Amino acid sequence: MFGLGTVETFKVFARVATGNEVARGQVESSIIIIVDLLEALDDFLVALAWLYFAWGIYSLFLGSKDALVNYASWLRVN
Length: 78
Hints:
Layout: H1 2-18, H2 20-23, H3 27-61
Helix pairs in contact: 1-3
């Protein structure tokens, strides 16, 4: 997802750098560029959420037993 967000961001910047859409001066093209950038940001945020979720699952089930001292008793998996 991080890679997808990066690729989408570069595509939008390349489209702006060529000047084809901005030179027209149309409001619709500016809105499309903003929406594309927001979609790329969404890809980054979803990737960050998945990364955080994966880290939590790993630390809960596969992490070292010493790290479980700080967890509540009902979170310990034996």
